[in-house]
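Section handout, structural biology tutorial.
Before the tutorial, make sure you can parse a SMILES string by hand: atoms, branches in parentheses, ring closures as digits. In the record below the ligand is zinc ion, and the chain has 333 residues. In the tutorial you will relate the predicted structure tokens back to the input. Do not try to memorize them.
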Amino acid sequence: MSHPVAGLAPLRAPLEIEFDYTRSLGPVLSQFMAALAERRILGARGADGRVHAPPFEYDPVSADPPGELVPVGPEGIVVSWSWMPEPLAGQPLAEPFAWALIRLDGADTAMLHAVDAGSAAAMRTGLRVRPRWAARPAGSIRDIACFEPCDGPTGGAGGEADTAAADEREMTPGMTVTPVRLVYMHTASPGESAYLRGLAEGRLLGQRCGVCGQVYVPTRGTCPADGVTMTEEVELPDTGTVTTFCVVNVGYPGQRAQGFTPPYVAAAVLLDGAGIAFQHLVLGCDASEVRMGMRVRAVWKPPEKRGTTAGSISHFTPTGEPDAAYETYARHL
Ligand SMILES: [Zn+2]
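Predicted structure of the complex:
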């Protein structure tokens, strides 16, 4: 038996995962951020007399929350640094800059921030720096656009663009938004590549294990039960049975553009002839009507909107057939 995808290169595509992580700042950091909006920097005095800036939430010596916060800086000295020759999107400055640990005047610990020194040659340990304040404070760490050398000219343009972008986010007092973004190249396995190429053609392709006879879709390339490479390609119908499901009641940013809103159903759909179910949306009926055993059919996107990197199946929708008997899918739960 020859490998069904021999000769076709595995698919590769950039994969981008992005979401905003929103959380409470808590009582201490809320004060710290609120002070930044007033162009003041606060630290916390610990049980051993040392001043920590930024302030600790719990004393590293006594584990108590800090008492009254104390003003520090705003100038300080660079304790250590590293050069960022090619800044990434979302970083404080668009031009090359230094990440530095800065010990502010009156503080015993250092805080991490960006220093706009113009060049790595201008950076050194012991360099005196001052904050360059953002034009529009928002109660965020980005109210300090960056630090700059005290012996240099005041205020560069750097930092303003990203600060403005940060300002556009909805700033809620006491809350902080941390954008998380991961971009990488994903290389699909030969079996996954065949599955994705099939989707672009409106076909559902799986593989059958030569030992146990189970059909996996999407295929994993090897049978998880037997550990053998699967070589037999199987085309499956686009009808199946809902085995389990959940009703999603929480939306996500940009969802309206997808054409559906909560409550909606994410279900495990067992395609007819498949050994394992896969996850997909079940739309086309009220979320409360979806049930175990419900018969569903794939709703394909128009051919011009299908592809090997985007979802080619829009969702599954009820066929109207009588429900499948529990015994027919019980061992696939
Ligand atoms: Zn097997």
